[in-house]
DNA sequence: GCGTACATAACAAACGTTAGGTACGTACTA
DNA sequence: TAGTACGTACCTAACGTTTGTTATGTACGC
C-alpha cells in the first residue's frame, strides 16, 4: 500500500534543505527548525523522514562526500600526475560548489571530534579519500613523475597539503584566489618531481 | 582601592577552565555552565570576569595562539631548514598538549566560519602564523635548502601541509603516530630540496 | 478503514543573560 | 580608634529563548 508521495524523493528534498542550512550556518547552526523553515515546512516533516538529529547529521555528511565525488572529473584518458592533479584540484574551493562543500566539511569537524560515532565516520571518510588517491600516486611514481618511497606517505602528504590549503582559503579567499590555489597545487606537484626528472 | 583577590589571576583560572572544557568537548560543548562546573563555581563567577560568551570564546582563541607559541622551542643557534622544521613540528600533535591545542583549534573553525568577527580573528591569526614562518623560509632559500620562488607560496604550502597533517592525525592518531608525523614532515622538507642540492 | 504524510502543539531541558542579595576588604571620616 | 560608606567578588535565582523530542490530530489515497 504505497502512498502517492515518493518517499525517497521527499527525503532528498529534506537533505537538500539540510545542505543549504549547513552551507549558510555551519553545523553549529543546524537545527531542525532551521531545516524546516528552509523547506517552508514544520519540524514534524523533518522528524518524519529522519528519526533524530544525529541521523540528519550522518546523512548530511554522506551527502558531503558524494558531492565531493561528483566534482571529481572523469579521468578517462588522463593518467599519472595529471590525473592526480585533477583529483586534488577537485577538492579545492575553485567553484561556489567547491567552497560550499568545503565549508560544510570543515565545520563538521567540531561535531565529529566531539561525538565518537561521527569521529569514526570521519576517520573512515578520510581513509576512503586516501585510498582513492593511492592508485593515482602509484601510477605517477611508476612513470617517474613522483619520487619513490611509500605511496601511502605521499598520499597522506598530498591530502594534507590540499586540505590545509582549503582551510586557509576558506578564511582568506582574497589571499587565496582560484588562480593562486591552482598555481600552488601545480607548483607543489612539480616541486615533488624526483631529482633529474624533466617535464 | 584594590580588592584582596588578584583579578588577573582569577581571570586566568576561568580561562584555564574554559580551556579544559574546550579540550574535552570542543566549541560545541562550550557553555557557561560547563565552565562554571569545571571550576566548581556558578555562572555568576564566569560572567563576572567575562561580559559575554563571545568574549569568552575570543579570549579562549587568544589563549590557543599563545599556547601554540609556547610550544615552539627557542631557535637560538638553529638556522635555516632546521629552524623551520622545528617551527612546523611544534604545531604537530606530537605531545598531549599539542594534541589538545590542535583539537581546540580545529573545533573552533565551525564557530569561526559562522561568525564574521571570529572569522576575521582567525584569518588574522593564520596570517600571523605565516609571517612567523616567512623569515625561516627565506633563510632556508638563501642557504639553498629550499628552492627559489615566492617565499609566501612556500610558506602557504608548508602551513597547509602541516595543518592538513594535524587534521588527519586528530581523526586517526593510530595511523598517524608521533613517529610517522615527524617522519612525514622530515621527508616532505627533504623532498622540497632543490634539484642537485645535497644534505 | 487503514496506513502514510504531514501540521500542530506541547514537553522538559539547556541555553545566555540579567537582577538581586550577601559577604568582605579597603578608604574615608570623626 | 571606631564607625560608616563603598566597591569588589561572588552566589542564587530567575528571565525569556531555543533546543530535540514526542504526542495528538487531520487529510487523503489505497
UniProtKB/TrEMBL annotation, chains A, B:
<keyword id="KW-0804">Transcription</keyword>
<keyword id="KW-0805">Transcription regulation</keyword>
<keyword id="KW-0238">DNA-binding</keyword>
<dbReference type="Pfam" id="PF13977">
    <property type="entry name" value="TetR_C_6"/>
</dbReference>
<dbReference type="InterPro" id="IPR023772">
    <property type="entry name" value="DNA-bd_HTH_TetR-type_CS"/>
</dbReference>
<protein>
    <submittedName>
        <fullName>TetR/AcrR family transcriptional regulator</fullName>
    </submittedName>
</protein>
<dbReference type="Pfam" id="PF00440">
    <property type="entry name" value="TetR_N"/>
</dbReference>
<keyword id="KW-0678">Repressor</keyword>
<dbReference type="InterPro" id="IPR001647">
    <property type="entry name" value="HTH_TetR"/>
</dbReference>
<dbReference type="InterPro" id="IPR036271">
    <property type="entry name" value="Tet_transcr_reg_TetR-rel_C_sf"/>
</dbReference>
<dbReference type="InterPro" id="IPR009057">
    <property type="entry name" value="Homeodomain-like_sf"/>
</dbReference>
<dbReference type="InterPro" id="IPR039538">
    <property type="entry name" value="BetI_C"/>
</dbReference>
<feature type="DNA-binding region" description="H-T-H motif">
    <location>
        <begin position="31"/>
        <end position="50"/>
    </location>
</feature>
<feature type="domain" description="HTH tetR-type">
    <location>
        <begin position="8"/>
        <end position="68"/>
    </location>
</feature>
Amino acid at each position: 500500500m504505497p502512498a502517492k508521495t515518493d518517499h525517497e524523493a521527499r527525503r532528498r528534498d529534506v537533505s537538500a534543505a539540510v545542505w543549504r542550512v549547513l552551507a549558510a550556518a555551519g553545523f553549529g547552526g543546524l537545527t531542525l527548525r532551521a531545516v524546516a523553515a528552509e523547506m517552508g515546512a514544520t519540524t514534524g516533516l523533518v522528524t518524519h523522514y529522519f528519526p533524530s538529529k544525529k541521523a540528519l547529521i550522518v546523512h548530511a555528511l554522506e551527502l558531503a562526500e558524494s558531492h565531493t565525488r561528483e566534482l571529481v572529473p572523469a579521468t578517462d584518458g588522463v593518467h599519472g600526475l595529471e590525473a592526480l592533479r585533477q583529483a586534488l584540484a577537485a577538492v579545492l574551493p575553485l567553484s561556489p560548489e567547491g567552497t560550499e562543500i568545503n565549508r560544510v566539511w570543515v565545520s563538521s569537524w567540531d561535531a565529529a571530534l566531539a561525538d565518537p560515532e561521527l569521529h569514526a565516520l570521519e576517520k573512515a571518510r578520510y581513509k576512503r579519500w586516501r585510498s582513492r588517491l593511492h592508485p593515482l600516486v602509484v601510477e605517477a611514481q611508476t612513470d617517474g613523475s613522483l619520487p619513490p618511497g611509500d605511496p601511502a606517505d605521499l598520499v597522506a602528504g598530498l591530502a594534507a597539503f590540499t586540505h590545509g590549503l582549503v582551510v586557509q582559503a576558506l578564511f582568506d579567499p582574497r589571499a587565496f584566489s582560484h588562480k593562486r590555489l591552482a598555481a600552488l597545487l601545480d607548483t607543489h606537484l612539480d616541486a615533488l618531481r624526483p631529482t633529474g626528472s624533466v617535464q
